[in-house]
Specification:
disordered N terminus, globular, Nucleotidyltransferase, domain 5, alpha/beta, 2 domains
């Protein structure tokens, strides 16, 4: 096979058959996770070919793709037509990752040049989104002029936009005209009484409207826009901000309602509420959810619309893989100094290599699952693992260099990505910062082990004292394979007595706490 030969979906499926990968039944209409249905954790075998072609290289719509493909946001939409109590677009810090934050606002012409520069330097950049810093559809001239030029000059890049939905029904035809086949709508409520606590006002038909009346208009427009998009075959991801005490017990209803209207994914995100960001919620002391509360809300929605769990709540000018931001490398002054060569063949060659890597990743995962099924010990056991990775779907990062840990729930039947936890770097300038270690331990204290490429002696000892096993013997392996191999070994150690039943009981208590919380949320809904 030549390096620049594109690997077709048929070849991937044929390889899957040779490796005895599970056959798929198409895009499931019943939703939920753990089924052969369209969702962020699904693969080529789980959905129709025309759907897979849309999502396979999209890091937001495919959990698997986010290990390999990068996204880019361009800040051409500064105005917004609603006010949210969790948003403040006036603040910017280059070290901050938060929606609505940008360092430079761009004209469409500047944005297109920047996209071409990024794509020439980062061949894995597959998706371009307009996500603010305001609302893409409150700035339709800039948004669609940018899309028009990109469609002409970079036809292989997928185009996306994010919107609050207020203006959406008016622009569906234009969205389809420019082949924008991925749209994200932020929907935090389907009950206007709850919406009135989230949105102080909307600007609608040349007037500012407040309270329940405003939330009612917003809700109706969001539902109409969602229905119009899905009727036209556009894939829609719904974002919801989890706000404890306001909509935390309401999001299960949101999930059901957006599923009825054909939403492809539902992304439940934690409220970012630190006071230094200057948002209304932050200044009023509204807290964000804990990791346990976020996971419980997501788990309570299982069986409804498929869930996205790998969101990083990106800046409106983010560049790079999810979980990293390379926007500082592509400021306007730096882009002006670059020689921009848009090499389509190089980009296709990269995608070809990724397809082969993904096939190998699936094969390794299936082999590990087969080994797990053959071990009849503790079949009911589930544990959480933290993983240090810098991309590629592998355990390939030093413990001290991690700015986040990916969290996997592992059992004899699966190794499923369930979220990520941001942390401060333990290593600072080549030395371990002991002041940072307690915050890292708190972030992953519900995990049984942490898989890393390397780890120093001091953090290794601290992790063990905290009841978290540090594991560096799987460095370089695919994550799911490493997680299942560790889990198989862990169950055998339980059987041999080298791991105590108390440890196993602790695992059950940890998982039980999540299950009880998720159950109470689902019952309340």
């Amino acid at each position: 096979m030549q390096a620049n030969t594109y690997v077709s979906i048929g070849q991937i499926r044929a390889l899957g058959a040779m490796l005895d990968l599970p056959a798929g039944g198409g895009c499931g209409t019943q939703g939920g996770e753990g089924k052969a249905s369209c969702g962020s954790s699904a693969g080529a075998q789980d959905m129709p070919e025309h759907i897979w072609d849309k999502v396979k290289n999209h890091p937001c719509y495919s959990e698997e793709a986010h290990h390999h493909f990068a996204r880019m946001h361009i800040a051409v939409a500064p105005a917004c037509n609603i006010q949210c109590n969790y948003c403040n677009r006036k603040y910017d810090c280059s070290n901050e990752s938060r929606p609505g934050v940008v360092s430079q606002k761009l004209t469409p012409e500047q944005a297109v040049r920047k996209v071409l520069a990024v794509a020439s330097q980062i061949p894995q950049m597959s998706v371009l989104g307009i996500a603010g810093p305001g609302d893409a559809l409150a700035n339709p001239k800039n948004t669609f002029e940018t899309f028009r030029m990109l469609q002409e000059q970079a036809p292989d890049i997928k185009l996306c936009l994010s919107t609050n939905g207020l203006a959406l029904p008016d622009w569906v035809d234009e969205i389809c005209k420019y082949k924008v086949d991925h749209v994200t709508i932020t929907i935090n409520m389907v009950d206007p009484a709850i919406g009135a606590r989230i949105y102080p006002w909307i600007f609608w038909k040349h007037q500012r409207i407040t309270g329940v009346a405003a939330a009612t208009i917003l809700h109706e427009r969001q539902m109409l826009g969602l229905e119009m998009l899905t009727a036209r075959g556009v894939l829609v991801k719904v974002n919801s901000v989890l706000i404890p005490g306001i909509n935390d017990q309401h999001l299960m209803k949101v999930n059901r309602e957006v599923k009825k209207r054909g939403a492809f994914l539902h992304n439940i995100m934690p409220l970012i509420s630190e006071a230094e960001h200057g948002t209304v919620f932050g200044l009023n002391g509204q807290r964000g959810p804990s990791a346990a509360e976020l996971k419980a809300a997501q788990d309570a929605c299982m069986g409804g619309a498929n869930l996205m769990r790998h969101c990083r709540q990106c800046r409106a000018d983010a560049v790079g893989l999810l979980g990293q931001d390379r926007s500082e490398e592509f400021t306007l002054d730096k882009v002006d100094q670059m020689e921009v060569v848009y090499d389509l063949e190089r980009r296709r060659a990269y995608q070809n290599r990724v397809e082969l890597e993904r096939a190998a990743q699936q094969a390794a995962k299936q082999q590990a699952l087969a080994a797990a099924a053959a071990i009849k010990l503790a079949p009911e056991l589930k544990v959480l693992l933290a993983v240090a990775t810098k991309g590629g779907g592998r355990v390939n990062q030093h413990f001290g260099h991690a700015s986040e840990f990916q969290i996997f729930e592992v059992s004899a039947a699966k190794a499923q990505f369930v979220g990520h936890r941001r942390v401060d770097h333990y290593c600072q300038g080549g030395w371990g910062d002991d002041d940072q270690l307690p915050s890292v331990l708190r972030a992953i204290n519900d995990c049984h082990a942490v898989l890393v490429a390397k780890i120093g002696a001091c953090p290794r000892d601290e992790l063990r004292q905290a009841g978290i096993e540090p594991v560096d013997r799987y460095g370089g392996q695919f994550i799911e394979q490493a997680a299942l191999d560790w889990f198989n070994d862990y169950r055998q150690r339980i059987a041999s007595g080298t791991v105590s039943h108390q440890d196993r009981g602790d695992a059950s208590l940890r998982q039980g706490a999540f299950s009880d919380l998720a159950g109470s949320l689902a019952q309340a809904a």
